Amino acid sequence: MSEQPAAAFQDLDPELLGDGPSKGLRETTLLSRDARLAGRPKLCSDCGLCDSFLKPEMARTCVFVRNQTEALEQRLFGRHRHDGDELRFGVYRDMQIARMKPPVPGAQWSGMVTTLGARLLERDEVEAVITAATMPGTRFAPRPILARTPDEVRASAGNKPALSPNLALLDEVRASGVKRLAFIGTSCQVHMLRAAQPQLEAELGLKRLDVIGIPCSDNVAYPDLVYFLDQVSKSPQTIVHYEFMQDFSLKMRHEDGHIEQLNFIDFPMDKLDGVFPSACLSCFDYPNSLADITIGYMGAPLSWQWVLARTERGEALLEMLRPDLEFQPASSAGDRRRGMPRYLQMLAKPPGKPPKPIRMLIAWLQRNRGPRGLEFARAIIEMKLFRNLQHVRERFGRFEQRIVPAHVYRALAPYADDYAETFGRPLAPRPTAATERRSGEARADA
Ligand SMILES: Cc1cc2nc3c(=O)[nH]c(=O)nc-3n(C[C@H](O)[C@H](O)[C@H](O)COP(=O)(O)OP(=O)(O)OC[C@H]3O[C@@H](n4cnc5c(N)ncnc54)[C@H](O)[C@@H]3O)c2cc1C
Ligand code: SF4
Ligand code: SF4
C-alpha cells in the first residue's frame, strides 16, 4: 500500500475534491474535524476510512468517488441482481420476518443485531466486533468501539442516528492483531469495507469478516440531529428512543414513557432544508446490499424485523439466532405504483404544506390505504432512489456516471415514461464523451 496520501488522489477529478465538507458535515459527530476533513471529496459520509491507515486507499474504495456495487456483488455473490425485488432489495438467498422472543430491552427494535454480534463473541467465531456505542453524556451521539466482550456489544444496542466513523477502528484492528472480525454498520461503510477487504486479508491476515448490515437512509451529522429533533418534538431533551415507522409517522418515546407522534406529512420541511448531508442524498444502497445479512424493519409489520440473508455465511448467522426468534410469513398490501407519478411531480415541484384537514386525510390514507409490508419497503426504496437520482442530477451531474450504480435505472425503468414527462429528460443516463467514444469504437470494430 502507498504511504503517500497524495498518490491516492492522483486519479481524482479535481471537481470531486471540495474545499471543505458538504453542508451536513460542516460540524461532525465527534471532535473538531477541520484537519480530518481536509482533502476529502465534497461527498463524504464520514465513514471513518479516511481516519484509518487506509486513507491512501480512499480513491479506490470510496462509494462517492466510484460506486463499485456491481463488481463487489459479482465478487461476493458470483452474480448480479435478478429482475424483480432484488433490484430494490439487493441479492439475497433468504428473506424472513422475525423478532427476538422476548424483545431485548433498550434495543432499537427487538435486538437481533446486537444479540447476533454478542453471540459471535460468545461462540468464539470472531475475536472482536465493530459497533456503535453511545458517546458519554449524550443520548444519540455515536461512539464507534471495537468490542471484545459480548456485554460490550449488548451495551451498544439502540440507534445513534448520526454519521459514525466506524471504519476508523480498522487501526485498532491492525494494532491488536485481530484476525476474525464482525462489523455492524451502515451501507456506505460496508461498501468501503468490502472494497478494502482483499487488502485487509492480504496485509492484516484477516481470516474472517462477518458483516451485519443495517438499512440506512437520511442519516445526519450529530449537530444536525440535535437541530432536527428540536424542529419535530415538543420536548427534544427527553426523547429516549425514536423511529421512522412503517405507518408514515415518526414516533418518539420520552423519559416518562409517553409516545409523541408526528405524521411525515406534518414535518416542517421548510425548516429541514440542508439538514441531510449531500452524501446521504447521493446514496443508492438503502438496504445495505453488500452485507452478509441485513437486519432492519421496513419490509415487516410494526414491531417485527425484516431480515435478508445474502451470503451462505449470512444464512449461517441467521441460524445462530434462530433458537431465540419467532417468525411470521412475509406479507404485502397496497400498490405503490399508483402513487409514484404523483410523487415524481412533487419531487419536480414541491407543493406547499396543505391545510390541516387535508394533511389529516393524507395521513389517514397513507396509514390505511398505503403500501404495507414488503410493498412499503419497495415504495420507500424506489422513492429514495428517485429523490437521490434527482439530487445527483441537479447538484453533481458530472458525477452521475460514477456514483449511480446501473441497477438504479433498471429498478426505476417501469416509471421511465412518467419520469420523462415530469422532468423533460430520459431516465436513462445521458451518454458521456467516454461512452460515446466507446460505442463509436465498437461500431467501427463491427
Ligand atoms: C441512521 C439510521 C437510519 C436507519 N433507517 C432505517 C430504515 O429506514 N429502515 C430500516 O429498516 N432500518 C433502518 N435502520 C436500522 C434500524 O433502525 C435498526 O437499527 C435495525 O433494524 C436493527 O434493530 P435491532 O433492534 O436489531 O438493533 P439493536 O440490537 O438495537 O442494535 C443496533 C445496532 O445499530 C448500530 N448502530 C446504531 N447507530 C449506528 C450508526 N449511526 N451507525 C452505524 N451503526 C449504528 C449499533 O452499533 C448496534 O449494533 C436505520 C438505522 C440508522 C442508524
Ligand atoms: S465517505 Fe469515507 S472513504 Fe469516502 S471520503 Fe468520507 S471518510 Fe473517506
Ligand atoms: S444514508 Fe447512505 S451515505 Fe448516509 S450514512 Fe446511511 S448508508 Fe451512509
Automatic annotation (TrEMBL):
Domain Coenzyme F420 hydrogenase/dehydrogenase beta subunit C-terminal, chain residue ranges per copy: 179-328
In this chain the Coenzyme F420 hydrogenase/dehydrogenase beta subunit N-terminal domain maps to 97-170
Region (Disordered) location? 1-23, 424-446
InterPro entries referenced in this protein's UniProt entry, alphabetically: Co_F420_Hydgase/DH_bsu_N, FRHB/FDHB/HCAR-like, FrhB_FdhB_C
Indicate, by first and last residue, each region the UniProt record lists as having compositional bias (Basic and acidic residues).
Answer: 435-446
Query: Any coiled-coil ranges, and where?
Result: none
Q: Write out the GO MF terms.
A: oxidoreductase activity, acting on CH or CH2 groups, with an iron-sulfur protein as acceptor
Q: Please state what the protein is called.
A: Coenzyme F420 hydrogenase
